[in-house]
């Protein structure tokens, strides 16, 4: 383990030279970028004035109080998330597991009962009781239940109906609708692949054509758009890459151009990530973008091992990027500035009263709390099991529990869910009319 006590990057003599240069051309976005950098500089200067020895601290206790209260009580401002209630369960439970804070059994049991009410009679989970099944809250509900990880939690999930629901939104081209009659984008492929793999309901046809469809979402930038032909975006890129990893088809993507795209999304001055080219830094991309690096590291490592076999080389060539083995891949760190990201999250994204946020000046919320902490966990932990290296900025108390880069729940909870559901057989694909009476 490496505790980082040396001077922070953002207080170093070269930091100011990393600020945005507009080449004397002012645009709407260049003005916004400068404003954000100024607000970050203000935060950093204030911190430096108050701390002789910079020691960024994770406000554990404050985050814990904020999160625990959110499980029972939400303010009026969350009214707009009435169709995302399983998400709130997941964001809070995952944040708590990252902080290594146990949830009382009675609270876990109440969450199970609530999520059971969100489960649709047609399978899958809705954003709230009585609403329509949707792939996003289905992903959130299954993740939340796997974090709880009890028999009671696993038993909430009706696997046969979940499979029926997935087939009801599957499209002939391999993509998935977010809900019946809804839109298609690459989030749905990830949500479907995530819940189906965790609960062991993948049939031979469920993901037919899906990897090819996801590969078409990768564009000239290197990242993935929501559907083929759209601008590359951090959230969609994570979803596409993680889905490919689950389906074992990550090599259908141009991994090196994806790598180049994502590393260029880490901001030189801020240290955090932007979601798209020419956009502003945002704390939630600490996971959506930085979370890609563990997936890419593993995929490139596997590809490097494969390409050492000469016969395989030509098959591993896609476009102009030839993969010739990745012996140069680090055994100690991901391919992004892990310290800079930790500095951004700890110094610029924490609300002193608990909860984390997008950027200075924004308010805290459970979504940003979950994804800032998830990104912080990625930046603190390299590798897994036998090859594990920690880089903790500040005191050791800042250490979070590692997160699984594919599912974004803790690795032991993934292993436990897989072990539980693999004892059960894969349900059968049923005709859509099953269970309903078809009158002429
Ligand atoms: Zn955000």
Give an overview in words.
This protein is mainly alpha-helical and 440 residues long. Helices cover 44% and strands 4% of the residues. It is built from 16 helices and five strands. Strands 1-5-4 form a three-stranded mixed β-sheet. Helix 2 (60-72) runs antiparallel to helix 3, helix 3 (85-98) packs parallel to helix 15 (366-380) and helix 14 packs antiparallel against helix 15 (366-380). The radius of gyration is 22 Å and the shape is globular. It starts with a strand and ends in a 19-residue tail after the last helix. Mean pLDDT is 92; it is low at 309-325 and 435-440. Zinc ion (ZN) binds at residues 282, 284, 358, 368. It catalyses: L-cysteinyl-[protein] + (2E,6E)-farnesyl diphosphate = S-(2E,6E)-farnesyl-L-cysteinyl-[protein] + diphosphate. Heterodimer of FNTA and FNTB. One of its GO terms (cellular component) is protein farnesyltransferase complex. Its EC number is 2.5.1.58. Its cofactor is Zn(2+).
Descriptive keywords:
4% strand; 440 residues; binds zinc ion; mainly alpha; two-stranded antiparallel ribbon; single chain
* Radius of gyration from CA coordinates: 22 Å
Q: Kindly estimate the percentage of residues that lie in beta strands according to DSSP.
A: under 5%
Biggest beta-sheet profile: 3 strands, mixed
- What's the total helix number? 16
- Molecules bound to protein: zinc ion
Overall pLDDT metric = 92
Q: Helical amount among residues, as a percent range?
A: 40-55%
Strand order of the largest sheet: 1-5-4
Termini separation comes to: 69 Å
Order of helices and strands: EHHHHHHHHHHHHHEEHHEEH
Task: Please state the structural category.
Answer: mainly alpha
**Unreliable stretches, pLDDT < 50, 5 or more residues?**
309-325, 435-440
- The shape is globular
Got a strand count? 5
